[in-house]
Amino acid sequence: MRREGEGMGGENTMRSQAIPLQHGKATGYALDLGNAPLLIIQTKNGYVMCGYLNMATANKLGDVAGRVTGVKTFEDVLKATVVEVSECARQKGLKEGMSGQEFLNALL
C-alpha cells in the first residue's frame, strides 16, 4: 500500500492523520475509493469504522469497534452517531447512540 504523496496520478492512496480528542490522540486512516472514502479512526484500544466495513468480522476477531454511516471526512466520523457496536465494545459499556467522538474518548 502506498502512502500519501506516493504513486502515480489516478491511484487510490491511503492517508493517515492525527486526530486530537479530549482524552488523547487517535489516528485516522482514509482510502479514497471513488464515491466515498473508507474511513477508520483508531485508538490503541479500539476504533470507529465507516459503513464500508463489516461488524460481523470485528466480532469474529474480538475487536472493540463502533460503526458509523454516511460519513466522508474524519470530522463526519467524530460527529456521526454510532449505529452498531461490537460485542467486545458492548462489554466495555459502549453502545449505539454515542457520537464517534464519545466512543473514541471512552477508549482512551
List keywords for this structure.
108 residues; alpha+beta; six-stranded mixed sheet; 4 helices; 24% helix; 31% strand; globular
Write the layout of secondary structure elements.
Blueprint (H helix, E strand, L loop, with lengths): L13 E8 L2 E9 L4 E7 L2 E4 L5 H7 L3 E3 L6 H6 L4 E2 L1 H5 L8 H8 L1
Parallel strand pairs: 4-5
Antiparallel strand pairs: 1-2, 2-3, 3-4, 5-6
Outline:
Helices cover 24% and strands 31% of the residues. It is an alpha+beta fold and 108 residues long.
Polypeptide structure, described:
This protein is an alpha+beta fold and 108 residues long. It has a domain of 71 residues: Hypothetical protein YunC (Hypothetical protein Ta1206 fold), CATH 3.30.1980.10. Helix content is 24%, strand content 31%. It is built from 4 helices and 6 strands. A 6-stranded mixed sheet has the order 1-2-3-4-5-6, with helices on both faces. It is globular, with a radius of gyration of 14 Å. 32% of the residues are buried.
Sketch the topology as an H/E string, one letter per element: EEEEHEHEHH
How are the strands ordered across the major sheet?
1-2-3-4-5-6
- The name of the CATH superfamily of the domain at 14-84 reads Hypothetical protein YunC
What fraction of the residues are assigned to beta strands by DSSP? Answer: 25-35%
**Number of helical regions:** 4
The helix-and-strand class reads: alpha+beta
Biggest pleated sheet:
6 strands, mixed
